[in-house]
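Subgroup meeting minutes
Present: P.N., E.W., G.H.
Scribe: E.W.

1. P.N. recapped why we're keeping a running log of single-chain structure predictions: easier to compare across weeks, and new members can see raw inputs and outputs side by side.
2. G.H. added today's entry (98 aa).
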Amino acid sequence: MPSMEMKDKLQRTMRKVEMLRKRYLTLLRDNKEMARKIENQELEIAQLEKELSQLRMDNEFLRVAHTVPDNPQAVAGLKKQVAKMVRDIDRCIKQLNA
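Output recorded in log:
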Protein backbone atom coordinates (compact mmCIF):
# COMPACT_ATOMS: atom_id res chain seq x y z
CA MET A 1 0.00 0.00 0.00
CA PRO A 2 1.43 3.40 -0.95
CA SER A 3 2.60 5.58 1.84
CA MET A 4 1.20 9.01 2.57
CA GLU A 5 4.30 10.58 1.06
CA MET A 6 3.73 8.73 -2.19
CA LYS A 7 0.06 9.75 -2.22
CA ASP A 8 1.01 13.38 -1.67
CA LYS A 9 3.55 13.27 -4.50
CA LEU A 10 1.00 11.63 -6.77
CA GLN A 11 -1.63 14.25 -5.94
CA ARG A 12 0.85 17.11 -6.51
CA THR A 13 1.85 15.55 -9.81
CA MET A 14 -1.79 15.16 -10.84
CA ARG A 15 -2.49 18.82 -9.95
CA LYS A 16 0.50 19.90 -12.01
CA VAL A 17 -0.64 17.77 -14.94
CA GLU A 18 -4.13 19.25 -14.73
CA MET A 19 -2.71 22.78 -14.54
CA LEU A 20 -0.51 22.10 -17.58
CA ARG A 21 -3.44 20.61 -19.48
CA LYS A 22 -5.55 23.71 -18.79
CA ARG A 23 -2.68 25.98 -19.80
CA TYR A 24 -2.18 23.95 -22.99
CA LEU A 25 -5.87 24.28 -23.87
CA THR A 26 -5.76 28.02 -23.18
CA LEU A 27 -2.70 28.45 -25.38
CA LEU A 28 -4.29 26.31 -28.09
CA ARG A 29 -7.42 28.48 -28.02
CA ASP A 30 -5.28 31.66 -28.07
CA ASN A 31 -3.29 30.29 -31.00
CA LYS A 32 -6.47 29.62 -32.98
CA GLU A 33 -7.73 33.12 -32.20
CA MET A 34 -4.44 34.68 -33.31
CA ALA A 35 -4.49 32.64 -36.51
CA ARG A 36 -8.02 33.88 -37.20
CA LYS A 37 -6.92 37.49 -36.54
CA ILE A 38 -3.95 37.08 -38.87
CA GLU A 39 -6.20 35.72 -41.61
CA ASN A 40 -8.62 38.64 -41.19
CA GLN A 41 -5.76 41.14 -41.28
CA GLU A 42 -4.32 39.52 -44.40
CA LEU A 43 -7.72 39.84 -46.08
CA GLU A 44 -7.92 43.47 -44.98
CA ILE A 45 -4.40 44.14 -46.30
CA ALA A 46 -5.29 42.59 -49.66
CA GLN A 47 -8.44 44.74 -49.85
CA LEU A 48 -6.50 47.88 -48.94
CA GLU A 49 -3.81 47.10 -51.51
CA LYS A 50 -6.51 46.67 -54.14
CA GLU A 51 -8.08 49.97 -53.09
CA LEU A 52 -4.69 51.68 -53.14
CA SER A 53 -4.04 50.39 -56.63
CA GLN A 54 -7.41 51.69 -57.80
CA LEU A 55 -6.80 55.08 -56.20
CA ARG A 56 -3.38 55.33 -57.84
CA MET A 57 -4.97 54.53 -61.18
CA ASP A 58 -7.69 57.12 -60.61
CA ASN A 59 -5.05 59.65 -59.63
CA GLU A 60 -3.10 58.95 -62.80
CA PHE A 61 -6.23 59.34 -64.93
CA LEU A 62 -7.05 62.62 -63.23
CA ARG A 63 -3.50 63.88 -63.66
CA VAL A 64 -3.61 63.04 -67.35
CA ALA A 65 -7.10 64.48 -67.77
CA HIS A 66 -6.00 67.82 -66.33
CA THR A 67 -3.08 68.08 -68.70
CA VAL A 68 -4.99 67.65 -71.96
CA PRO A 69 -3.13 69.81 -74.51
CA ASP A 70 -4.55 71.79 -77.40
CA ASN A 71 -2.06 70.90 -80.17
CA PRO A 72 -2.42 67.73 -82.29
CA GLN A 73 1.02 66.31 -81.44
CA ALA A 74 0.34 66.51 -77.75
CA VAL A 75 -3.05 64.86 -78.25
CA ALA A 76 -1.32 61.98 -80.06
CA GLY A 77 1.08 61.60 -77.13
CA LEU A 78 -1.86 61.65 -74.77
CA LYS A 79 -3.57 58.91 -76.76
CA LYS A 80 -0.42 56.81 -76.43
CA GLN A 81 -0.45 57.35 -72.67
CA VAL A 82 -4.10 56.33 -72.45
CA ALA A 83 -3.42 53.25 -74.59
CA LYS A 84 -0.56 52.30 -72.26
CA MET A 85 -2.82 52.73 -69.25
CA VAL A 86 -5.46 50.54 -70.86
CA ARG A 87 -2.82 47.86 -71.48
CA ASP A 88 -1.72 48.15 -67.86
CA ILE A 89 -5.30 47.77 -66.70
CA ASP A 90 -5.79 44.74 -68.95
CA ARG A 91 -2.60 43.22 -67.53
CA CYS A 92 -3.82 43.83 -63.98
CA ILE A 93 -7.19 42.26 -64.77
CA LYS A 94 -5.44 39.19 -66.21
CA GLN A 95 -3.35 38.91 -63.05
CA LEU A 96 -6.43 39.17 -60.86
CA ASN A 97 -8.21 36.49 -62.87
CA ALA A 98 -5.20 34.15 -62.82
